[in-house]
Amino acid sequence: MGCLLRLEELVERIRRHVELRSSGMISGPFEEKGLRIEAARMLQEILMRGEAARGSVISASGLKERTGRNLLGQLIEEGLLVSDTPKGEVRLGFPIHAAGWFFPDLYPTLSR
Q1: Closest by CA position to 101, among listed 15, 34, 8, 2
Q2: Is residue 22 part of a domain?
Q3: Nearest to 87 by CA among 57, 42, 45
Q4: Contact 60, 41 (CB under 8 A)
Q5: How many angstroms separate the CA atoms of 109 and 82, rounded?
Q6: Where would a tag sit more exposed on the chain, N or C end, judged by fewer CB atoms within 10 A?
Q7: Contacts of 30 (CB under 8 A, 6+ apart)
Q8: Residue 93 falls inside a structural domain
Q9: Is residue 110 situated within a structural domain?
Q10: What is the pTM of this model?
Q11: What is the CATH classification number for the domain harbouring 37?
Q12: What is the pLDDT along the chain (112 residues), one digit of tens a residue?
């Protein structure tokens, strides 16, 4: 199972997914919305911690507070981050639209 997940490469796959979304080369669940490149830092922060307070995730992005909150909201809306409560800590989500990019050996995508 470990060889299918290739967790040691997950950070790079997440970064690449965000990069492609940011450039418009791939679309997300809401095609009209791109994804800021700073989202990669937010997702990597959660990947390393497992779960983190929203404020620390926004800080990790390097964005101003308002812009960081908007991006955090987008990541939650898209299911890339999830939380049990509206103000609670966030953790990584693995929505179907990103699963093939995060775990290509488990969920092959057509457009890599």
Answers
A1: 15
A2: yes
A3: 57
A4: yes
A5: 23
A6: N
A7: 77, 78
A8: yes
A9: no
A10: 0.85
A11: 1.10.10.10
A12: 445 556 678 889 999 999 999 998 888 887 777 899 999 999 999 998 999 999 999 999 999 999 999 999 999 999 999 999 999 999 999 898 888 888 887 766 554 4
Q: Is residue 12 part of a domain?
A: yes
C-alpha triplet 58, 97, 78: angle, nearest 5°: 35
Q: Give the whole-angstrom CA distance, residue 56 versus residue 45.
A: 9
102: its two tokens: 């995060």
Output the six-digit token pair for 74. Answer: 């987008």
Residue owning tokens 């990069």: 19
DSSP string, 52-64: B-HHHHHHHHT--
Angstrom distance (rounded) from CA 84 to CA 86: 7
Give the chain's domain count.
Answer: 1
Amino acid identity at 82:
V
